[in-house]
Amino acid sequence: MSGPATLTSEARVDTQQGSRYLTQLCKHWSHKFPDTAFSPERGVVPFGEGRTFTAEADPDGLTLRVAAHDLEALTRMQGVVAEHLARFAFREDLGGLAWARVV
InterPro entries from the entry (predicted)? Predict the structure, then answer.
């Protein structure tokens, strides 16, 4: 018997500071979630209870992904990631994050 299906959503941020923000986010959460792994190009934070944050940086921006087992948790993850990114990117107007479900 398989577990519940995972829901995933993604947002793209155009910024030349993608690697820096990825690193800040992952370092921030690594204190609470020790299985966090990251490099300048990619980071993964396993939040537990089937919730995961993944980020990929390139020279033109940052792609953010969140995954969870239900819509309520997915929506909450989107908010947490957006809030933390806004804190770290306070010097830059990134605009609002437009999350889209990934099939």
Answer: UCP028291
